[in-house]
Amino acid sequence: MSPSSSRIRNIFEPLEPSYVADLWNSRFGISLSVFLGYLFFRKAQSVWAVNDNCLPRISYEAIGMRIMNLKDRPWKPTTSALQVFGRHATKNVIHLDSINAMIFLEGKTLVIESNCEPGYVVVFYRGEVLGCGLYSHGKLVSQIPKERRMASVVENGACEDQ
Q1: Percent of all residues in the chain with a pLDDT value above 90, rounded to a whole number
Q2: Cα–Cα distance between 65 and 75 in angstroms, integer?
C-alpha cells in the first residue's frame, strides 16, 4: 500500500443549501432567496459556494468561493463572501464613517457602540461592504485578512496632516 493511498482524502461533500442559507439568515437576516442558484460543499472545516451548473464527477482541489469557516464556534464568514452576500444583510450590521472605515481597513480595533449581537458582523462604509468584523462589549475587531489591509499613513512615513 502506498503512503498516498493510506491517507484519508479531503473531498468536497455536498451540503443541503437550506442548511447554509438558514445560518446566514439567522445571523445576518439575509433572505433565503439570495442563496438560490448556488450549490454548497464542505471540505474539511470550510464551506464553498459555486453556481448550480452541473459539475463533472472528478476530483477538485478547490471549487467556487470559500464562504465560511466552521472550525470555530460560531462559524465565521469570509470577507469575500460578505462582499458578495453581505449587501443583503438586515441585522448585525455596522456602518462606519470615513475615519473609522480607514482604521477598520488597517486591521485595527474600534471602540464603537452598536445594538448588534456579540459575534461576527457585516461592516459597511457608504453602502458598500468592507468585510467582516467581530463585535463584543463595545469593541469592533477588524477581521480583514492581513494581505487585504490598508497600510497606515503613519506606518508609510507620510505626514499625518496631509
Answers
A1: 68
A2: 16
The residues pairing with 95 across neighbouring beta strands, listed in sequence order, are 124
Its domain, for residue 76, covers 12-87
* DSSP 8-state assignment for residue 84: H
Strands 38-43 and 46-51: antiparallel
Q: Is residue 105 part of a domain?
A: yes
Q: Which amino acid is at 25?
A: N
Please report which residue ranges of 53-131 form alpha helices under DSSP H: 79-85, 98-105
In 3D space, the residue among 45, 102, 32, 118 whose CA is nearest the CA of residue 75 turns out to be 45
Residue 97 and residue 143 in one domain: yes
Q: Which position has the higher pLDDT, 56 or 74?
A: 74
Question: Any idea how long the chain is?
Answer: 162
Calculate mean pLDDT across residues 89-106: 97
Task: Assess contact for 103 and 110: CB atoms under 8 A.
Answer: yes
pLDDT (mean) for 132-155:
87
Handedness of CA 148, 126, 96, 131 (dihedral sign): negative
